[in-house]
Amino acid sequence: MLKLKNYSVENVLENIDIEFDTGKTYVIMGPNGVGKSTLIHSIMGRPDLEVSGDLTFMGSDISELPVDQRARLGMYVAFQAPTSIPGLSNFQMIKQALNLKGSELAEHLAKFRDTTEKFNLPKDWDKRNVNTDASGGEKKKNELIQLSLLNKKLAMLDEPDSGLDVDGVKSLVSFLNEWRTQHNTLIVVTHYDRLIYDLNPDAVIVLKKDGVDIGDTDLARRIFSNGFDNV
Amino acid sequence: MYKNLYSYPFLETAYQGKPYYKLEELYDYVTSEGYEKHVINHLDRNLYTSLNEHVRDNLIFLRETGLPSHKQEQFNFSNLNKLFNRDILNTNELAVSYLDRIEKFDYLVDPDVLNEIILCDSNVLASETLSKRRPYNLQILDISKINKNRHLEYVKLLDNTDNFSNLTYGLSRFPNVIVFPNGSKERFYKNPIKIKYANSSDEPILECNTTIIDVQYDTSVKIKESIQTRAGQMNYTTYIVRENSTLEIERNSNDFGGWSLFDSRFICHPGSTVKIKFKNTGSSYTQENFYFKISSDVNVELIGRNNIFKGNEYHQFVRVRSVDHDNRSIVDIKNVGDEHARTSFVGKYEINSTSIGFDGQMDNRNLMLSPTANMHTRPILDIYTKEIACTHGCTISNVDKDQLYYLQSKGFDKHSAKSLLIDSFLC
Q1: pLDDT per position as a tens digit, A78-106
Q2: Portion 395-424 of B in contact with A at CB < 8 A
Q3: What is the DSSP letter of B137?
Q4: Does the CB of B425 have a partner CB in chain A at under 8 Å?
Q5: Domain architecture of chain A: domains with CATH
Q6: Which chain A residues are Cβ-neighbours of B334 within 8 angstroms?
Q7: What angle do CA B78, B421, B414 make, to 5 degrees?
Q8: For a disulfide at B424, which of A87, A172, B24, B278, Cβ 3.0-4.6 Å?
Q9: Which residues of B touch A45 (CB under 8 A)?
Q10: Which residues of B touch A95 (CB under 8 A)?
Q11: Residue B232's Cα: distance from chain center in Å?
Q12: Residue ranges of the domains in chain B?
């Protein structure tokens, strides 16, 4: 689904080669500051990042596409620190993004409220402003609600567990297990062992400045026991 | 207005028959000795004597102070030269009577509209419902018809100022007074009064309204104001909000091709509440000033959302003068400036030494979307007591790049994301 070859992000990452297949789940790990968030935002097309190398999504070169076109192809990034937008309500954003009208609007609102309830968010969440006056955990849950409604093929989640309480992590795992199918791809950046074990990913990718190590859940276990330097 | 009040031949002679006049020329004319003689000789002294003494005093005062200058803080960033050079009189139109104009511009009068008052060149056109309903009927008065005590109070309120109010007052044929009677808590709140400030023509003329809106004791009133300036318009409205009364105003000013100056003065008595929400698109020149004088235990909220684009201008001065204890004030103004827009905000809290317990918050946020836009903001806190809480925040910024990226990453193209952010900003 997504392929990076000789992929570099100026001053952060060099010569990364990774292939993400459809229907699989990947966990990205790495020491602080190595560029995990930068990697997924560069894939999404954040304009201030200078990248080089090959980047293909579903067989097409997307390296020159702007962010919104990548999003419309089915790519999604859940932010580590979601940006607040005062004045724009959570559901209004979904409504505008999908240009919802009539029965579709009612269907999506019902689904929105249903997901909100599953995440134990306040009942008026649809009317609350995007990531405004919300806790860190609530913002993370909001990113997942958007993912559930925006029909995406590739989800890149940047530390979705940070800020979540114990029940929140359970809801997260349950949500992701429901979301991932053989038709989509999930990439999760995390440092949290419980999440990795619960997701049981197809591959664990350890990001380094000049490349990657790829393994399975055992690689994650060894990192948790010995640290990044000793693996 | 002055085309009725002042001698056209006099003006013609003074300016050698030029087809258009400028505000500065008009000012020279109305503050000249010749004009003063004309006022004394030509007006019906029986009807207007007392009033015109004040008009004359005002114009004499104006002659001494001059038109406002950039040195005055409320006009610091405004574009007064542009205003002074506006064409304000088309001589060919002088023969057309006021009523002819009204017929020509039938948008002004809609018989099906209830609860509406149209203020047009010092004339008042009110829906029948407003004058027939009792016991809570409105009193719409011109100042010469009211009793002596009230007259003196109102005239005192229209005292000399150092801004355009003098000129507006001097050029209004007479001030109108709208009185909301005592104790009406629902009648004018559930069914808001609509007040439309309109021009009778879209020719380059100047029309003026001086109005007093008196909200009597224990009364709640909601007013929806619409400013429709097809030509030049100067409005000077004084709102008196008496003890334990509430006044809520929603004001919309849209660009109809004219220009306007609107001075709003609020005299807030103890225990009163004033809430104003206004929206503006600016015009070739718009200046909107709010002057609040608040006594004790008064709550004032001023919320403005202004979207200024093309080459439109919007200049604003807000002054909240707190003279007694336990007052609260929120001033929250947001401006968007695009293309060649020109905006300014000067906000001032004047808190005197007896104004203990004042709680004020002044915010002016500006979103500058184009490098060719010109936006200014200046908060001023002038405080003479320590026992208060007062905050201010004034910013001018571009669209937040993080917000733009966030929305684009959710699938919005750049244009839609930007317009969504503007709408959210102005929300």
Answers
A1: 999 999 999 999 999 999 999 888 888 99
A2: 400-403, 405-414, 416-417, 420-421, 423-424
A3: -
A4: yes
A5: 2-226 (3.40.50.300)
A6: none
A7: 110
A8: A87
A9: 409
A10: none
A11: 13
A12: 2-425
